[in-house]
Amino acid sequence: MQENLVILGGGESGVGAALLGKKQGFRVFLSDRGSLKEEYRTKLTQNGIEFEEGTHSEERILNADLVVKSPGIPKKAPLIEELKNRHVPIISEIEFASRYTTAKIIAITGSNGKTTTATLMHHILTQEGLNVGLGGNIGKSFAEMVVNDEYEYYVLEISSFQLDDVISFKPYIAILLNITPDHLDQYDYKLELYAQSKFKITENQNHEDYFVYNYDDNGIADLIKEINTKAKKIPFSMSTHVNDGSYADDENVTLNFPEKVELPISEFALRGKHNVSNSMAAATAANILKIRKDTIKRSLFDFTAVEHRLESVLKVGGIEFINDSKATNVNAAYYALESMKNPTVWIVGGTDKGNDYSELMPLVKKKVKAIVCLGVDNSKILDAFEGVVDNIIETNTMQDAVRSAYMFGRKGDTVLLSPACASFDLFKNYEDRGNQFKKEVKNL
Questions:
Q1: Average pLDDT of the segment spanning 110-134
Q2: Which of 63, 156, 215, 374 is the right S-S partner for 136, CB 3.0 to 4.6 Å?
Q3: Any idea which positions bind ATP (predicted)?
Q4: Would the annotation count 304 as a binding residue?
């Protein structure tokens, strides 16, 4: 008898899971309380998959044998609670897809740097000529790629929400970049619950697998003593000489396992201390996979930064414009400011997420010559930095923000868009904000 597979959420991952479910012989029903994008609606219809939008038919959903849940649906939603009461297994698309592939999986999680590290990892493996897919929280649905079954390797960016719903997911290499407070509203405002969720990336690994982790991160250091991972633990560090992993000094990144490789940091395409750490994590995994030294070096040197993440746009009148629109929290803006080498005009602001700007104060005093606020309500930023920076003004359009920043700049300066806030007050999303920035820079 066919099992009933219910997919909750009709975005990229949900539709991918529906297609894979159909291929594997499930009776598939997809339900989304919102409305589906036209391309997803077409895909489902063409593949003869039943779906509904604008509602959840509870009776039909509660009759499921297995539920694949979108990471965006809160764990405490009443429908999810009721499914749990009925002991219906609830899994993520990552878990579901992993059950139907024998490909090697490199899975990357962390509070910051996931997208950059996953994209760089994919770039290294592609340069080596390997057959590799990039998915998870980035790019294509992992499940849909498994439907077509054409890859020997998968690089997956994975969020804590996706890890919450894994049962047997077992990557060959798991990478944990860092743990800083994020999404705590979904974890009873307890950092340790959020951290435990991240550690689920390694819980099913065995002694043939590898767990690459940030040796410098206090949250990871505390929990790694408690967890019982069977994987080979490979640390990477920006401050400590680790013999069984990788480490950086002022000049080089040194990979020690399984082969010794030295990589000159001055040649890295990605700028900033945090990106040296991200590059080291990817290179460590590549070394474990026995990627040739020349490929690792070339890939780190010629990699193009992820769009909207410390993306160099253009030099106008000797002033460099950098788009870091993806910096939607204070921690991400901290990394961006830390990486600035020249006097900086900082464009900041948007929808505040309860930000505390005090941790940015030393960097602002040292590096920022002017602040251009870009938001509907800039009062918190003005309160934090008035009197700290000589020039601080308010704008509420990207055109005004870019032109004002240009006026403050001099040859050799940098204009940095790193908002530390969400974008929804003036823009559709951070991509829209970054694209408008690039357009206005080109119009100068």
A1: 92
A2: 156
A3: 110-116
A4: no
